[in-house]
Amino acid sequence: MKNCNKPFLFATTLILLSLFLLPYPARAEEKWLRIVQSASKADYFIDANTLTYQRGFIAVAWYKVVENKKAKSGLGFSNVKTFAYDFSDLAYSKMLCEINCSSKKLRTLVITAHDKNGELLHRDETLSGSWTDIPKGSCFDSIREIVCTR
C-alpha cells in the first residue's frame, strides 16, 4: 500500500521551513518628532511612523517622554518608587496610546521605562485599559490637538 500523505507532509514541511528562513521585512525605523515640552521641561516625542487612525476617530501612536533630570519640580518618573520598582535610573519612557479625538479621552496600552543606555527597566501592558479624560491644558491635551487635526 502506498502512503499518499508523505508527499503532502514533505511539501508542507518545506513551505513552513521556507517561511522561517525568508528574511523578515524590517520594521520601519523610529522617527521621533518632538511635539510638546512640559512645565518641568520633559520632552514629549511622537514616533511619526506609528501614527494611525482607527474607526471612531481614534489616533494610535507610540510616544516617548524624555525626562529633564535637572528639573527641580520633583514630579518626574525618576522619583517614583512603586510596586518594588525603583525608577531612579530612568532616562525615558515609551507609551503606546490611543487618543479618542471625539471624546477627548486617552488609553495607555503599553508603557516601558528605559535607562540612559536604552535598557528596559520595566514594561506594563494593559491592552484593555480604561479610557480616562485628558486634563485640559496638559501635555496630552496639546498632543490631542495636534494628532486630532488632520
Task: Characterise the protein shown here.
With 150 residues, the chain is of the alpha+beta class. It has one domain: Lipocalin (Beta Barrel), CATH 2.40.128.710. It contains two helices and ten strands, in the order αββββββββββα. The strands form two sheets. Strands 1, 2, 3, 4, 7, 8, 9 and 10 form an eight-stranded antiparallel sheet that branches. It is globular and about 40 Å long. Residues 1-26 and 78-82 have low confidence and may be disordered.
What does the secondary structure layout of this molecule look like, with pairings?
Layout: H1 5-21, E1 32-37, E2 43-47, E3 52-54, E4 58-66, E5 81-82, E6 85-86, E7 92-100, E8 105-114, E9 120-125, E10 132-133, H2 139-147
Antiparallel strand pairs: 1-2, 2-4, 3-4, 4-7, 5-6, 7-8, 8-9, 8-10
